[in-house]
Amino acid sequence: MHAKPLPGANNMLRHAFNLALSLRSKLLRSAQRARLRRWLIRRDGRQSQQPIAPRLGKSLYAAPIGAAGKDLLAKLIKKWGHEQFDYLIFVYDGSRFDEAIFSRCSFISEPGIVYQFFRKYLTAQRCSAYDYVVLGIEDVDIDSFSWPNFAAIMQRNHLDMASPALSAQSHSPHSIMFQQLGKVGRLVDVIEVFLTVFEARAWLAFRELIEPDKNFWGWGYVQLAQSYCDFKMGIVDAQTITVTRAPTFKQESQDEMTRFLRSHPKVRRARFCCYGELQPALIDIDQKEKS
């Protein structure tokens, strides 16, 4: 006869297993942080020897927007204006944007999915006229986002890819994206694309990760971006956005991510860790303008 397991034995084994997984995860993150700090020293040394590209003075905001996102897009355009931004909007549901606030935007109206648009239309030729390429999604509220200060923080810290932090009211499964009070921002090894800013040349490196014929929801791309593209990435806690709707889980997206990551076995994946802090902008541009 087989002996019956002691009461609670299964729970004890499960608890021990979970503790082992947690410890392994902590050790891997610690190793990732140490590796990234060493990499950053070498990377910043190389960057300091390269000539600084002249600023063109304009950036491109690109996002797939349907009827549900019109009001939030109008708020963003009203806040950011047209002096520093052009807007390229991918209308995936046939909605009309006849209101005056949208009169200076460019629209491409066709069915499609997020990264399908980004890969197809944000080409080297289109992006060559801009300092930054900003990717958005339709359910993001920009809160009190200050573009001049955000860009100044990116420049001060020589970031290739950056995002404002998420407010506490946001919906996201990734805790690393949420605002940490009292910080300018954090150096990180991953950034989820909600409203994400790329230095224009860095965007073209990231674009090479995007498969032209599959994985259009884009799960997994950001997990390889730091290693594949040699990116210095930051989440700016001094600025927040709010993701207003919970993400929809799609098994198709999960399956595509699994296949995509397996197709790049030699590229180190993100551990969703922070490994340093960002420096503040040399000048608070908003405060300077008020004075």
Q: Structural class, from helix and strand content?
A: alpha/beta
Order of helices and strands: HEHEEHHEEHEEEHHEHEH
Distance between the termini: 85 Å
Helical coverage, percent range? 25-40%
Biggest sheet statistics: 10 strands, mixed
What's the gyration radius in Å? 21 Å
Instruction: Note the total helix count.
Output: 9
Can you tell me about this structure?
The protein has 291 residues and is α/β, with parallel strands linked by helices. Helices cover 37% and strands 19% of the residues. The protein is built from nine helices and ten strands. Strands 1, 2, 3, 4, 5, 6, 7, 8, 9 and 10 form a ten-stranded mixed beta sheet that branches.
What is the strand and helix layout of this fold?
Layout (H helix, E strand, L loop, with lengths): L8 H40 L10 E6 L5 H11 L4 E7 L14 E4 L4 H8 L2 H4 L4 E5 L3 E2 L5 H11 L3 E6 L18 E4 L6 E5 H8 L13 H9 L3 E11 L7 H12 L11 E4 L7 H6 L1
Parallel strand pairs: 1-2, 1-4, 2-3, 6-9
Antiparallel strand pairs: 4-8, 5-9, 6-8, 7-9, 7-10
